[in-house]
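[09:14] KT: can someone run the structure on this one? pasting the chain below
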Amino acid sequence: MAPHVRSCPLQFTCATPNLSKLFLQLPPSCRSFHASPRTQSIVLVAHDAVTGLHSLTGLPWAYTIPLFALTLRTTLILPLSIYQRRANRKQASLVPIVQSWRHALQHETMREVGHLGPVVAQNTLLRKLRRKRNEIYRRWGCGLWKNYLGLAQVPVFLVTMEALRAMAGAQQGWWGMITGSRNVGADTDALLTADGLTGTALIPVEISFATEGALWFPNLLLADPQLLLPFMLSGAILLNLFGHKPVALGPWQTRFRRSMGIVALAIGPIMIPVPSALVLYWVSSSMLAYGQSLLLERLMPIKKPVMPCKPKRPMKSGLGLPEERKP
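[09:31] RB: done, structure tokens below
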């Protein structure tokens, strides 16, 4: 029997010098040695994109900021919205197939749990219908998760707002500007760089904001003196909430929509002390979102699904369904 030989730890230590040389050749961001977090690097990308568009077009900032919002929406958000719209149209066309399973699932439910009462049977039937609907949607490539692709624009919006906040010279974040709180250490603009030295802030204040406004807000570093932009923002958000064709909503969806309407009314007074550059971007993004939704409704309409006919005397299934109850 051969003696057991333990692996020598020197086999690993002999290879470490080569790994160390390769590791030291990586940039500081890959070695996680620089002081700024990864979110700061994402904000730097947004800052470089905004300033690059401003340098490329030569337009004042009052027109560059809406143009940047349009660029983001057409390059990043519009393709996702079209993809989501196609999934919604496919889901609407599959409603008759989903409804056709109702009769078979009713009989199956009655055989399984019919003896437990109408409440249990009703809940079981709804659970089976939801499971079958998800199965059909998944088979046709239009799963329900595609209905939430619009949430992907939230990180893009927040990163752009943070970049504009730094360019406007506000020491606290956009939420701190709304609530009036200040970050600890906000009075200094010194940061620790990757080389261990003390330097200025990663995103400097854009001095040209003070002179490249427009109309009644000539200085984008300051709040709107006429208080028009904040209330235009409230109107734009309300337009996105209630400016579309009326559709049938459930009770919880209706409550959520009304709650968001109250929040939209409160956003105007809250955004009064915020620099005009941030409010201008938010107004532009909201109006472009409304225009995009109108464009999709016109070019990619969702047809009303074909619903099953309702007989004058519906056959009772014994489940106690709402449509089977006497008026």
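[09:33] KT: thanks! The longest strand covers residues 191-192.
[09:34] RB: yep, looked fine to me
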